[in-house]
């Protein structure tokens, strides 16, 4: 892998800014100032008569995609607001079957009422349910939060453990949640296989597996361990902003030349730009308190949208 690949991106169409290259053991290609690049169909795309891609070629393409994503999303981060491992653990459990935005809008009141595992373990179930109701499935989630808080209090001295073997023993905590907490609260590398991650790595032909643990194992084998956590963020960011499930914005995608699924979505650049979401589409992100380097807008607090609509609909004075 000593030769530098030639990059072809649609930076103008996706509104992308360059960022640092953080891929391990590989160097980003030099850029040619002043030239706009247009996304073209991938050599592996539909209608290709080329022979099947070898495993080695797939690994090289996957690592190149990771390098590209590192430049597209140098600010990629966990999209849950948290200040300590306990808050991240609780927020991740709440994020099941809902958006990170709705979790972030709910957790300020939750952590104001129950800032520690000991506080949450002693909560009345009905009070906890009422606070987390906006996240959906609130009864089951309340049971998980009470159970994990009690386990943290009784078995771990009120501290979130920093080992996956311990985390997965907590109620409501599986490998996905454990890897989120380990990677972002403890700096322990891990692949987080959520819906977006699994969808994109299959779309990119990095794996054909459907089971999250098998996906995790195969992707871990492709990338250096030091890349696992940030790779997870970059892939999820791309899935939420550009490579959507039902209608990916292929014509505005900077990694279109590397994508075997190019053409499954909208290829017209102007139409594709209208599909971009969050900061790529000029809209607020999911975090109420995003990192300082986030280029987009903070998300509004719970009820802020309804309040703004009500203010607009209110009659004006005489």
UniProtKB/TrEMBL annotation:
Its EC number is 4.2.99.18. This is Endonuclease III. Its cofactor is [4Fe-4S] cluster. It comes from Streptomyces flavotricini. Residues 302-318 have a biased composition (Low complexity). One of its GO terms (molecular function) is endonuclease activity. Residues 270-280 have a biased composition (Basic and acidic residues). Binds 1 [4Fe-4S] cluster. Keywords: 4Fe-4S, DNA damage, DNA repair, DNA-binding, Endonuclease, Glycosidase, Hydrolase, Iron, Iron-sulfur, Lyase, Metal-binding, Nuclease. Residues 1-57, 270-318 are annotated as: Disordered. Belongs to the Nth/MutY family. Residues 289-301 have a biased composition (Pro residues). Pfam families: EndIII_4Fe-2S (PF10576), HHH (PF00633), HhH-GPD (PF00730). DNA repair enzyme that has both DNA N-glycosylase activity and AP-lyase activity. The DNA N-glycosylase activity releases various damaged pyrimidines from DNA by cleaving the N-glycosidic bond, leaving an AP (apurinic/apyrimidinic) site. The AP-lyase activity cleaves the phosphodiester bond 3' to the AP site by a beta-elimination, leaving a 3'-terminal unsaturated sugar and a product with a terminal 5'-phosphate. InterPro entries: DNA_glycosylase (IPR011257), Endonuclease-III-like_CS2 (IPR004036), Endonuclease3_FeS-loop_motif (IPR003651), Endouclease-III_FeS-bd_BS (IPR004035), HhH-GPD_domain (IPR003265), HhH_base_excis_C (IPR023170), HhH_motif (IPR000445), Nth (IPR005759). The keyword DNA repair applies. Transmembrane segments: none annotated. The lineage of its organism: Bacteria, Bacillati, Actinomycetota, Actinomycetes, Kitasatosporales. Residues 94-241 form the HhH-GPD domain. [4Fe-4S] cluster binds at residues 243, 250, 253, 259. HAMAP family: Nth (MF_00942). The keyword Metal-binding applies. It catalyses: 2'-deoxyribonucleotide-(2'-deoxyribose 5'-phosphate)-2'-deoxyribonucleotide-DNA = a 3'-end 2'-deoxyribonucleotide-(2,3-dehydro-2,3-deoxyribose 5'-phosphate)-DNA + a 5'-end 5'-phospho-2'-deoxyribonucleoside-DNA + H(+).
């Amino acid at each position: 892998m000593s030769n530098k690949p030639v990059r072809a991106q649609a930076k103008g169409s996706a509104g992308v800014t360059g960022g640092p290259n953080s891929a391990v053991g590989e160097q980003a290609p030099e850029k040619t100032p002043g030239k706009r690049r247009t996304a073209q169909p991938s050599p592996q795309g539909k209608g290709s008569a080329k022979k099947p891609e070898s495993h080695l070629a797939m690994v090289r393409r996957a690592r190149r995609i990771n390098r590209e994503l590192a430049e597209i999303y140098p600010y990629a981060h966990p999209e849950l607001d948290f200040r300590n491992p306990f808050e991240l653990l609780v927020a991740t459990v709440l994020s099941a079957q809902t958006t990170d935005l709705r979790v972030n809008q709910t957790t300020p009141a939750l952590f104001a009422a129950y800032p520690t595992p000991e506080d949450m373990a002693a909560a009345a179930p009905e009070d906890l349910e009422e606070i987390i109701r906006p996240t959906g499935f609130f009864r089951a989630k309340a049971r998980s939060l009470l159970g994990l808080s009690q386990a943290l209090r009784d078995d771990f001295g009120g501290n979130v453990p920093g080992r996956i073997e311990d985390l997965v023993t907590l109620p409501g905590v599986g490998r996905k949640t454990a890897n989120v907490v380990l990677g972002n609260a403890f700096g322990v590398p891990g692949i987080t296989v959520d819906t977006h991650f699994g969808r994109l790595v299959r779309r990119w032909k990095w794996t054909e597996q459907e089971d999250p643990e098998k996906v995790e194992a195969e992707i871990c084998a492709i990338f250096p361990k030091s890349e696992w956590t940030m790779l997870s963020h970059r892939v999820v960011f791309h899935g939420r902003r550009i490579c959507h499930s039902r209608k990916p914005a292929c014509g505005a995608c900077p990694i279109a030349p590397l994508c075997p699924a190019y053409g499954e979505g909208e290829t017209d650049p102007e139409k594709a730009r209208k599909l971009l979401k969050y900061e790529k589409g000029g809209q607020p992100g999911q975090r109420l308190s995003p990192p300082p380097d986030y280029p987009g807008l903070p998300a509004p607090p719970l009820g802020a949208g309804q309040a703004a609509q009500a203010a607009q609909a209110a009659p004006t004075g005489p």
